[in-house]
Amino acid sequence: MSDIYKVLTELGIPYARYDHPPFFTCEEADGFYSETTKGGGTCKNLFIRSRKGDRHYLVIVHSSRRVDLRHLEAVLGEKGLSLASAERLERFLGVKPGSVSPFGLVNDKNKEVVVVVERGLYTYDKLYFHPNVNTATLGISTAGFRKFMDSTGNRVIEIEI
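^ that's the sequence the OP posted. Answer follows.
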């Protein structure tokens, strides 16, 4: 498993780290984020699989958004999308439930995960994600996020929510 701090440093992407109690849902994090992330985009990250389990998607949207899987199926040309199991999450992204983040892509050595990003996130100056554990949050610039995503080699699809 790759050290995300080392990866970000090697890419020249500055970050701010905020330690906190474990958060498993966006609702649990709301109080912390309202004080810490003023003006930034807090993100919800979902790891989803196709019905057959042969395709996997990391869906990244603003934390206030509700993800409609039927709409996502239409956008992606899929049927039967559902949340992936903890085992798949560990196998593809190297993280546990509650810690899903684009930073887990450093562990996707075969570039099997397709990333789906809400376009609206790019309107924020900073974005916030767990650093592959849910006891901290990293704030990075939107430009830094784009640079990180480019470095992963994973396919990225931008969508409107």
